[in-house]
Amino acid sequence: MLRKIVSPALFLLLSALVIASCNSSETKPTATGSDTADRKWWKEAVVYQVYPRSFKDSDGDGIGDLKGIISKLDYIKSLGVDAVWLNPIYGSPNDDNGYDVSDYRGIMKDFGTMEDFDALLKGMHERGLKLVMDLVVNHSSDEHEWFKQSRSSRTSPYRHYYHWWDAERGKPAFRYSLFDVNHDAWKYDSATNAYYLHYFSRKQPDLNWENPKLRQEIYDIMKFWADKGIDGFRLDAFQFAAKDTTFPAFPKGFEKDFIQYYAMVDGLHDYLKEMNKEVLSKYDVMSVAEGAGRNFQDAHDLVDADRNELNMAYAFEGVDIAKPEGYSLLHFKEVFSRWDSVFAEKGWLSVFLANHDQARMVSRFGNDSPAFWEASSKLLTTFIMTMRGTPYYYYGDELGMTNAGFSTIEDYQDIATRNEYEHQKATGGDLNKFLERIRFSSRDNGRTPMQWDTTLNAGFSTGKPWLRTNANHTTINAAAQEKDPASVLNYFRKIVQLRKDNPVLVYGKYTLLDKNNPDVYAYTRVWEGKKMLVLLNFSSKAAKANTGVDTNKAKLLISNYQTASVDGTLQPYEASVYEL
Ligand code: NOJ
């Protein structure tokens, strides 16, 4: 049996929520009862992530820029989101697309000028949008002045801004590098006959957080941006910032265990507490670190409000589930339910299925075939927008953008992908297999130019884009979807509004139903007398949800089908949300 959606009034397109600060101007606490939540703007916000290189190019050089983003602020506002997380825009030689910073107080030439930044921030604030900046301080660029000085002599005042190991001591114990062609994190530098440490590429030497002078430099940089009025920091790779600088050998076989052996080393919490005291507590800024440590205890400790470190955890276990061979919904449900339960009483989570380090959400977790691309895109969006935690939503997912479909290594620009290809080549790996794997997983899948319209380069740039545009921009693009009230884009706007109108979707207790159903993800959210039911069919076939709830008696709030099912049998990739 099928029924029409009943409540179009809920589907107002634009958001009016102006978000306040986490440290001072907080959202009002809720009235009464055991459901009482500690309300904060950053819990209620929907964060939209913009990868500046790929969003909109204003000057035809094929690289997205700040003026391009400014020209699209009305679009971003129209989505109903509250905050924008911008990947790094600082001065950088771009070995890792800005995650190698050579000037923390300047703007990358490709992206524009400080005047452009000021105009961007002003334009955002005028529209009630917050700005969260990426802060990359586990490492800098090797072209940063600090590193140039540091490598110039063993007695340089900047020597201890980085980690050096004098070669006469022999080779240091192995450390794994994620991006190095050889995966060796120690690079020999003949200028001073010493090795320096780099967990990422050779051009991203790790900063030495043990050095108080370095820490003070970082806090001053943070103050520089906070004084400009930005609203938050995302701390890149920060869980790796603390190191045991005696660099002991790791137990045999565990040298590559990046999370267990490289993350959350003693000292990290002290640095965060100091950062909080020196900077975060003094400004209206929210803070989120990339990664959430080795276990739940770490994740909690990072964001427990009583500890005065960070605001919210950003954990990877959920987003890591999708594999080229597929994934099990039972596993997916188990992971997201477990994380929710651990944070049910205290602390706060981020909810996301994609970012600039992942391939596209619909290609990994949904079904990007023509028959199911639209329904499964909407389903995944429904999941993100109805879970407890702050949604982080990646640019282009609101259109259902898909993986790039590149077939040769030359199409890829990402350093991680290219260096791993070289590594495979040097070590006799199967290159065809590798190419097949990266078609599913390379980070460049999620970095292709934003698909604005059907014109040249999807309306992203009049010049040759730095990364090839996805050929499907002629069918998947914002202009076409603007005109269609049932598009993926307009569905996104509706469900963002639904979340805004219903704090139960932000704060409500989460309960998993029909736990062992391999196709359907069903859960309720309850808060202050309100109860919602979310039904998600993650399969390409009709599937029955055994929730014990008679949806005939429930009010259908939103569905990705024109006609939602009410007898518990869900259509392929159906997503329906009810008020009970
Ligand atoms: C994590 C960032 O998200 C990723 O894009 C980057 O390559 C590494 N950190 C190094 O900064």
Describe this structure as you would to a colleague.
This protein is of the alpha/beta class. It has three domains: 8-50 and 76-140 and 212-400, TIM Barrel (Alpha-Beta Barrel), CATH 3.20.20.80; 145-197, Alpha-Beta Complex (Oligo-1,6-glucosidase, domain 2), CATH 3.90.400.10; 509-579, Golgi alpha-mannosidase II (Immunoglobulin-like). It has 18 helices and 21 strands. The strands form six sheets. The chain has a seven-stranded parallel sheet. The protein has a five-stranded antiparallel sheet with strand order 14-15-16-21-18. Helix 13 packs parallel to helix 17 (488-501) and helix 14 runs antiparallel to helix 15 (431-441). The radius of gyration is 24 Å and the shape is globular. The protein starts with a strand and ends with a strand. Bound molecules: 1-deoxynojirimycin (NOJ).
Précis, in short:
The chain has 580 residues and is an alpha/beta fold.
- Main sheet summary: 7 strands, parallel
Please tell me the total number of domains: 3
Radius of gyration: 24 Å
How many β-strand stretches? Answer: 21
Count every helix, treating DSSP H or I runs of 4 or more residues as helices: 18
The CATH topology of the largest domain is TIM Barrel
Strand content: 15-25%
**In angstroms, what separates the terminal alpha carbons?**
18 Å
Order of adjacent strands in the largest pleated sheet: 11-10-6-3-2-13-12
Globally, the shape reads: globular
Give the bound compounds. 1-deoxynojirimycin
CATH class of the largest domain: Alpha Beta
Oligomer: single chain
Low-confidence stretches: 1-35
Annotated CATH architecture of the largest domain: Alpha-Beta Barrel
